[in-house]
# Entry
Amino acid sequence: MCRSLCAVLLACLAAPTTAAEDLAVLPKDLEGAAPRAMVHRYLLDLSDKALDRRAAEYEKLKTPEDVARYQQRLREFFVAKLGGFPERTPLNARVVGGQQRDGYRIEKVIFESQPGMFVTAILYLPEAKPPYPAVLVPCGHSLNGKARDLYQRAPILIAKNGMAAMCYDPIDQGERFQLIDADGKPLATSTKGHMMLAVGSMLVGRNTATFRIWDGMRAIDYLQSREEIDPKRIGCTGISGGGTLTAYLMALDERVAAAAPGCYLTDMRRLVHTLGPQDGEQNIHAQIAFGMDHADYVILRAPKPTLIMTATRDYFDITGAWATFREAKRVYGRLGFPERVDFIETDTEHGFPPEMRVAATRWMRRWLLGVDDAVGEVESPVATDEELWCTPRGQVMFLDGARTAYDVNVDLEKKLAPARKKFWQETPVAKGLAEVRRITGIRKLADLPEPKWEKTATLPRDGYRIDKLIVRPEPGIWLPALAFVPPEHDDNAYLYLNAEGKHLDAAPGGAIEKLVRTGHIVLAVDLRGQGETITDGKDNYGPYIEPGWLDVCLAYLLDRSYLAMWAEDAMVSGRLLAGFEAGAKPNRVHLVSIGATGPAALHAAAMEPGLFASVTLRKCLRSWSDVVHRPLARHQLANAVHGALVVYDLPDLVATLPAGTVTIEEPVDAEGKPVAMTDSDGVARP
# Structure
């Protein structure tokens, strides 16, 4: 691209469109869905089809041998998507306090699940003759973690019934906030912190669940290290986020002899159609696409004793919970132990009501103590947050040598960087790009269907016209586009992608008009989920996670990254533009991206280098490694690709494109702040 055109294009500030001009393209109804619901409906359809395939596979489980193969396949998938687990390093556990209470004793414990990752826990010890069983009680999502009254009352009841219990703080809760200011005030709490951690974790092939599960496994290590606890009689129970962790631990850790997850298990079909995906650790990459449903957490441990605890009015759908129980019960029956899986439904809302605490305690007594009797709960006083502090200032990050989960991800990224560099030095470009295609799932342009498109209206402008186009790259997707066409044009055409909407640079006198007046056709397109089809999302996470995160997470569960879908939309639109009002030969298509579409546009150009004559990236993210290194990354979830940094980073893609075809202007870091381009960044200079 000539420098004069770059200057014209990139120096112009966006101007508002005139009041009289309507640049909206799509109708209010797209075959029964509003434009802003389009992507959600599309993803739900993919989800239903994937879950239908999983249901068919489940029905093939007829014999114990079938079940064993199924369990092995699921377990290997699950662990792989977590990125595996770290080595077992010394716990360096210490008891830092204790108190005798009415009918039980508490001890304050600190251990390291990984070097420098301190875990704070309260161990509730019974007045019983050792060795006795122990029950791990993972916390649900709460600001004060293990100190919340619910997460005190359950361990107290367990301890008063002859078993030890341990409740520990998850990351970003209680005493384990990962990001704090000088006064200890958290910058991100509970689900917000879990989702923020998920972005960088995804890029290095991990998940927030990797950290959460490993904390739980190391907590079991600690319980087994205590002389008074029988290491072969370990149980696990929790509700909400603690129900999630109970489900994960009981599925992956064979030491969990009895389990009682509560207020979490439903089934994936009901989950995505009602509540939708939840925070970082509750979304396992490609889970739906692979065929791992909620029932499989129970099936993975069959025939070990499992009690599914539910609430009638829970937002985790009760109908789905009953479906999960039925699937599990059938498998346990085929293994000859139908009595080892059971189900309770309390007439309550989401929470840890007395009925569940009693049921969980009775279940643990049955299977860990061999006693099946009535259990009752007597009101017991609970401690204050400060009374349960294990650290002097109430936060582990004030301890010497404390490290965050973000630090651990940075360590991994630093180990991956030299391997990436070596890979691209020693690997032919075509083979390297084949790996990129494998990781992203971006299909070849030749394998994508020819898009259907139609012109719905034409607007006259002074010296050119604007055609309103609807592009259909695949069933269920409508891309609104504006074609700016001068009366006389050359064979250079521009595909213009602005993440904030196709209309922003479309006003008279704006950047698009400047190109048109120099004789070029410009096609401005809203990629799916942008502009007119941006999802009506929940702004749960402030400036850090996009409001449309629910659909991004649903796509993640389906192994369909937004980046890959955007890249394919760009490729299809580029092919359309190549033939749009072309002469004897196709138009030479120049790709222009502004803002968050940058990584996807770069992928489109790298995957189909013959499609675009040039690529201009303005305000594009500099690198994915920068996302990992910046905990306060902003709106990077949609452009994250699971495991990408194992093989490549964005500058590696830039380097694959022909010299002189890429212009990078005003690159930004992961927080959206402008950064200077240097050779050390690995970003090609224009």
User: Anything to note?
Assistant: The longest strand covers residues 104-114. The domain at 80-395 is CATH 3.40.50.1820 (Rossmann fold). DSSP finds 20 helices and 17 strands in the chain. The CA atoms of residues 29 and 501 lie 19 Å apart.
